[in-house]
Amino acid sequence: MREERLRASDADREKIAEQLRVAMNDGRLSLHEYDDRLVQVYAAKTYGELNPLLSDLPVPRKPATVAQRVPPWVIIMWIPWAAVNALCITIWVATGAGYFWPFWVAVPWGCALLIPTAIGLLVQSNQRKPDNG
Asked: pTM of the predicted model, to two decimals?
C-alpha cells in the first residue's frame, strides 16, 4: 500500500495546517489561499489529499529555539530591571559590600514583573494551541 492511500490522522492535519499558517505569515499565501487550503486540509482523508497542499511551498523552517520564542515585550519589560539592578549591585560593591540592600530593589520589582510576564506567556501559549473541542 502506497503512502498516498494511507489515512491521515488529526495530528497530521494539524501539522499541515500549522505549515500553512507559517506560509501565510511569511507572505507566501494570501489569506484567501490560506483559507481555501485549510478547508481542504480538514476535509482530507488520506496523505495523498494532504501532500499537494504543500507542494508549492518551501520545506518548513526549523522550529524556533527557546531564546527565539521569547516575545520582544518580555525582553523590553525586563531590560530596565536588569540594568537598574546591575547598577545597584555595582554601587553595593563599590561601597563596601555590607548588607545586601539591592535585594529590596530586585525582589519586589522582579515579582511585580514576574506576574504579568507569566500571565502574558500563558495567554500567548494558549492562543497558539488549536482548540480540540
From this structure: 0.47
